[in-house]
What does this fold into?
Amino acid sequence: MASRFLDTLHKHVLLFDGAMGTSIHSCADCTTQDYLGRDNCTDILVKSRPDMIQRIHETFLLAGADVVETDTFGSNKLVGADFDPEMVAWTRELNKLGAQIARAACDKHSTKNQPRFVAGSMGPGTKLITLGNTDWESMLDSYCEQALGLIDGGVDCFMIETCQDLLQVKCAINACIDALAQSGRTVNDIPILVSVTMETTGTMLLGSDMAAVVNALKPFPIASLGLNCATGPVEMAEHIAYLAKHWDRAVSVIPNAGLPILLDGRTEYPLGADAFASAMRRFIEQYNIDIVGGCCGTTPQHIQEVRNVLGESRARTPRITTAQAPACSSLYSMTEFKQDNSFLIVAERTNANGSRKFKRLLDEEQWDQLVGMAREEMKDGSHLLDVCVDFVGRNGVTDMAEFVSRVVRQVNAPLMLDSTESPVLEAGLKRSAGRCIVNSINLEDGEGRMDTVCPLLKRYGAACVALTIDEDPQAGMAKTAQRKLEIATRIHDLFTRKWGLDENDLIFDPLTFTIATGNEDDRALGYQTLDGIELIAKQFPNCGIILGLSNISFGLKPSARTVLNTVFLVEARKRGLTAAIVHFSKLLPKNRIPQEQWEAAEWLIFDRRGDTRPDGKPAEFDPLLYYISLFPDGEEQKVEKKGMADLPLEERLQRHIIDGDDGVLAESLTEAMTKYEPLVIINDYLLAGMKTVGELFGAGTMQLPFVLQSAGVMKKAVAFLQPFMAKKGVAEKPKATIVLATVAGDVHDIGKNLVDIILSNNGFKVHNIGIKQSLQQIIDAWKSTGADTIGMSGLLVKSVTVMEQNLKQLNELNIRVPIMLGGAALTRHYAESHLRGVYNGPLYYGKDAFEGLSVCNALADGTLAKVDAEISARLTKRAEVDAKVGQRLEAADSAIATAPGRSDVDQNIPVPKPPFMGDRLVESIDLDAIYPYVNKIALYRGQWGFKRGDMTEEQHEALIRDTAEPIFERLKAQCKQESILRPAVVYGFFPCASQANDLVVYDPTDPERELERFTFPRQIARQSLCISDFFRPANSGERDVVAFHCVTMGIEVSHRAKQLFERNEYTEYLYLHGMGVECAEALAELWHKRIRAELGIGNDDSPRLKELFTQKYRGSRYSFGYPACPEMSDQEKLFRLLKPERIGCHLSENWQIDPEQSTSAIIVHHPEAKYFAI
It folds into this structure.
């Protein structure tokens, strides 16, 4: 019988109901006795309180829902076992009851024009196969029993929802198919719907991204794929955009009522019905979504508002989709079969028949080392792993199960499961969450092998390799091009017609054989394979073609094999080869193979003998013998790398510093002391290395992390030499002594500490006295140390003012010590043109640590006059610029007098409705939810200093991929495991209104009582903008709403960073400090997104997370100290409103938040609000 549900889905957008759990917990007549002694087991209520469950269904049907889900989310045997055996025994009955109750409600409210449907809810349970909590067989049995009960009760479809593990999804789908078969039905009668849960991290719970989800589930006969739970609609946008583009069937969106928050010990969902419906409108209208509904926190009011958006009946609008490229996938991500600029590289060493090491480790059951081999194969450039565990004397099923269950979690690699035994293949398929490739099928026993393997491909959604072998007793293994095509054609027909499988999932292996035997019959095997590849590629362009590459060179010595394999691969790719099973690191680029060897390999492949022999070769020329002669014994190709120990001593000492290499540092220094005094080693060689480091940094060819690595080695070298100097009564005399300090009120110390590192490792004595230092503390340190100069640093604009005040006080005290100034807010022009005029002594600006080093070297050498002359020359050239600046300021002063009172910003924007008024504290925030919002450009280039410099774009991308990304991943794990980052937020919504340039914030409990008043500057030109313009005027008759937040990553990260600095672990100090700062910014970005969602304006967010960094969303977030709100003292007002002291935040005397890894903002909802200059 044709499914009416499917027919309706094809014609109309369907509205599912809201949250069953939320509804149950809001029922005043639900008592603890209703749970029959099973705490919070809502599934039991279909047995104890069918009246209440039907009433809930009917409230959603009355609100306009087309579909209600059964109260059977956890009614499966695995979940039942968490309670008691009786619950397990009731599984089928509970599901039948749940379906019957929903059926009764739907029948009551169905009409001819609006039929109502029952979806059988099947949740993820409490155990996942990939995590090893259960196995495929147990889960299959559990879900099958549930599905049978739902069928008994009369469901119209299955909804496999809140899925957290792709392997769990595959198992549940198969359970439904098996249950339907037992009931004499198919998916055309009762269709299967799937809904996965994407966490705030951007992936499923176990790490699968949306591309992997689509790839893994595409082969299965499911009617729809979508998202539900975990997040609100705003957070789902990026994933829905991907599904709408790449999923060729119905798409469902069933979000929570916003991101949940914990308030007074209870979970709340802040998104109101209007805002929820507004967000859903975007999915319906922009992406033509087919199924909408609500998950946790959604009520009949939410569903009613979505019904108002849909109208009585909304016709389904077909989407134009772009099919995902044919691919396989790991648990985590997808890998396309056809690579744009390469071939699909299948690692060959995770194969007991191809690697002695793998076979030995497998026999010893060294599982961790086996996984390590897999990891190394991927690191070497492979795209997926060929996994074969077959060898005599071991249980292949057990070995495959054990290895695959480990490798799928620990290595991001799709798997090619390689075995002649179907049970071994199935053992791997049952444990692979991603989409595998099976290796292989053939016709050696007629259609028998395909009849065994093809059902596995359908059941587990796998692709397949097909060998060109048939049952011919003499020529079964096809060796000629025509035979290869003939067998490939027969396999293709069976694969697509008999088994109904997609030809895009078929990869032909036309077989390659060694051409190194010298047998006459084997001479042509190379070019026959190449011709066969070309014929198959032309006949079946949608199929892939793969070879076990190393077979071509079997029998040759390793160096000869490397060259022949490389040349044959190049020729095969020209003909249409798309993949190869190969040890990729054993291939060579063409420019590293002598031309003579390359040509000889081509002659061997194409059997250039007799009339086809190369010009100039004798009639008896044999390309095999000639090729072998090019690789004589004892001349194996080796890539020699000149090691540190091979360098001359003096060069080696410098290379230790330049390369940041302490590998044989002690040995080098010990050897050097037999020739030089320790002080000579430091001054003439080690410092020379540091000088080169500075030059490389200045030229843009060395990035900051490597500079700090060099400084760390320098510190170790000096520490090694110091005891020997002390024994001889020799002390290392510093070039000069410097006192460094961050000025009062400023907690930022990264810049100052970098100066400390560079100076102290270039022969200077540094007294780094810390942050928030008053002038008196600085003077005391200068006097007590007898320092030659003082360096003052500060990040804030306010800190520049403090510096100027310090300079004036130094004048009053008649102190003329040379001063160095630096920091993010200070410019060279201001320091050299203004502050030099303020101070009566020498004053210099340091853009970075190396410019500070240059100034200090001039101080030590007595050449400051040269630096003074350079400054004078710059100031002379700037005279004209200064004059123009003065004219501009005069024009600005005139403009201020005539500036209009208010811009033309729209004052009639509807005021969003916040979920609450007042402030809230949030402390339980998962770091994994924050990490996706880290701006990697700001982190890698800004904080860590991995700048492009003079590198090509490709070189810089490689640096980021190979160096910065692994550091980020390592720190993410470390910060979470060791609780280094401790995120917390205070935020709130307040009624407000504007009065000219003022924003007035009112008491949430008394909208007429003024709490705070912020005064903002107004543009003197352009649009005459002011932040207050983005809010309704006080005389408009309606209060507007403003949000504030303050976020922090806690004090622990500052403590840890300080410890690293004190241990001279400079590079790690840089990394951790930057990580903390950017994670605070990421938390601010995340919470701003959450505030937009709670205000109901989040549907304007770009679905691409990266675009949020460029304000691709509605409204704006302004932090104090920036042009539009420059008054730092306004932080006090924000602190009075939000009370951030509750999360450990405090204000310095300059109104800076301590800890440093914290930030605050005023959040504006107006669509015209963007960053602007005054």
In short: The mean pLDDT is 91.
